[in-house]
Write a structure and sequence with these properties.
The protein has 497 residues and is mainly alpha-helical. It has 4 domains: 84 residues, no CATH class; 88 residues; 107 residues, no CATH class; 138 residues. It is 50% helix and 8% strand. The strands form 5 sheets. The chain has a 3-stranded antiparallel sheet, with no helix packed on it. Strands 10-11-12 form a 3-stranded antiparallel sheet, with helices on one face. A two-stranded antiparallel ribbon has the order 2-3. Helix 3 crosses helix 5, helix 3 packs across helix 6 and helix 10 packs antiparallel against helix 11. The two termini are 60 Å apart. The protein binds zinc ion (3 copies). One zinc ion binds next to helix 3. The site of one zinc ion has 8 residues, from helix 1.
Length: 497
């Protein structure tokens, strides 16, 4: 068996008047070499030099540029091809990037050249970063990544010559780009930098900039206090156990933005926060868009910190309880299973959502320890229960396990996340999945609600809550909505003991 890399696109037009037919592809391209099998065109020649696999004749595993009479792969020795595929530096037989040098040694050269200081040596503190980049699973992609990205070269060069220190503060001072954040995450992953919560830091920087949009000094001080003492403190508490997720981060931003709008609005009315009356609060809620209700958090905070008089704050009304019909739910399941225009990751997440009512937040945080694949079954651990997946989904997940996306970069090769994300050390982003599903006309929240309505008809809420890891109250809530007689189940259970 041979694993040929993707053949290159053929940009030249074959010309029977000028070129002999190639012994391999039979097309009339310029001949690159005359091998025992005949003339070999430039395309087939390049492909041969990149082909890895197992030699049919001797079982050698490595480069197999040759072909036997049945077009099966042969190693250099068995084919007798006049090629040199051994890197002079690391003495590995592999795909060479240029004469006598393999892609990994070339990547090593490029990275060390960029990261080395004026003395031509990579500083000890940057050594783990150099090693991590050079060790990425596909060295040729690494070379392309650096060659095609001036920003990557610039930053690596600046780290190397010391003009940018390897610290979070120094990186914060640079324009925020994906490159900076990616390299930061890589440095954290490899202990060049201490861990720092990405979204927590993002909120902190955002707050700093946002303070300039307040209309006066007093408002600025109040918002700074609110941001630091309320939101940052909560996000820090969060970050102490788990990475801050998108939900709390976005809510903190929205709540701060609306608090600023509120103070600016109050200012236009010529009122200070300390003099804010019930009439002001009611006017705020009554006279603007529905996003005004997000001033709630700020108003509670201001009231409890005695920055306002004792006001009554209207309760935030949550969105309506959305559902999809049972037919539509079945249609969605069928679409997820049959149509492969969605990436497998989103199809699997969609199936766990639609069949087991799992939240996307929980799904994206599944680890490799939460999945068991044996010859006969694939099971997933949902809360405390192992659930055997039915056939087409188990197949999807089995395929996914052999080829998890985002594991071929320097960052995630050993990721334990079932769905590794694009950022080193992180799992797939929840919002990305929700957006992808929405794009495929699958409304996550409504589907999840409907799934629960279905599930609570089949089993008592408490049992489901234990098995599928939602709170018993949530399960009962779904049951009530579904009109299911959960108390009957509960009493049967209790009576059976
Ligand atoms: Zn050819
Ligand atoms: Zn051989
Ligand atoms: Zn080498």
């Amino acid at each position: 068996m041979s694993a040929t890399r993707k053949p290159r696109r053929r940009s030249q037009t074959p010309d029977p008047d000028k070129h002999h037919p190639c012994a391999r592809c039979k097309d009339h391209y310029p001949t690159a070499a005359h091998w025992p099998e005949g003339p070999v065109c430039t395309y087939c020649y390049q492909t041969a030099k990149r082909t890895e696999g197992t030699c049919t004749a001797c079982g050698h595993i490595g480069m197999v540029p040759g072909l036997d009479d049945d077009h099966m792969p042969l190693c250099l020795r068995c084919s007798g091809l006049p090629l040199d595929l051994t890197c002079n530096r690391c003495e590995t037989e592999t795909w060479l990037a240029k004469a006598n040098t393999c892609w990994r040694c070339l990547l090593d050269d490029i990275v060390r050249d960029l990261l080395s200081g004026p003395d031509g040596v990579v500083h000890e503190s940057l050594e783990p970063l150099a090693t991590a980049i050079v060790a990425m699973p596909r060295a040729n992609s690494g070379v392309t990544w650096i060659r095609a990205n001036p920003k990557v070269r610039e930053l690596l060069g600046a780290l190397g010559d010391g003009s940018v220190d390897p610290t979070h503060d120094a990186l914060d001072a640079l324009p925020r780009t994906r490159t900076v954040e990616y390299l930061r995450a890589l440095m954290v992953e490899h202990s060049v930098l201490p861990p720092r919560d990405r979204l927590l830091a993002t909120y902190e920087q955002w707050l700093h900039r946002k303070l300039t949009t307040t209309v006066d000094d007093d408002s600025r001080k109040i918002i700074e206090r609110f941001g630091r003492w309320h939101h940052l403190r909560k996000l820090r508490e969060h970050a102490a156990t788990d990475p801050v997720s998108t939900g709390p981060f976005l809510r903190a931003k929205q709540s701060t933005t609306v608090a600023i709008s509120f103070l600016n609005w109050l200012n236009e009315r010529g009122t200070a926060l300390a003099d804010c009356s019930q009439h002001d609060v009611d006017a705020w809620y009554a006279s603007g868009p529905s996003t005004r209700q997000h001033a709630e958090r700020f108003l509670y905070w201001a009231r409890s910190n005695k920055l306002t008089p004792q006001l009554s704050i209207p309760r935030h009304t949550t969105g309506k309880y959305e559902l999809v019909g049972e037919d539509e739910r079945l249609h969605i399941i069928r679409a997820l299973l049959l149509h492969d225009d969605l990436p497998a990751v989103h199809r699997i997440a969609g199936c766990l959502l639609t069949l087991y009512g799992q939240s996307i937040t929980r799904i994206v945080a599944l680890t490799m320890d939460d999945v068991r694949a044996t010859i006969s079954a694939v099971s997933v651990k949902l809360a405390d229960t192992w659930v055997d997946l039915p056939e087409p989904i188990s197949h999807l997940l089995r395929d996914h396990l052999t080829n998890r996306p985002n594991t071929s970069t320097a960052s995630n090769a050993a990721s334990r996340w079932l769905f590794p994300g694009a950022m080193p050390g992180e799992h797939l982003n929840r919002q990305t999945v929700i957006d992808a599903l929405r794009h495929a006309c699958i409304p996550s929240r409504a589907v999840r609600n409907s799934t629960w309505q279905q599930l609570v008809r089949e089993a008592p809420p408490q049992v489901l809550a234990d098995a599928l890891g939602i709170s018993a109250i949530t399960a009962m809530h779904h049951a009530e909505r579904a009109g299911s007689d959960w108390s009957r189940y509960a009493s049967t259970r209790a009576g059976g003991r």
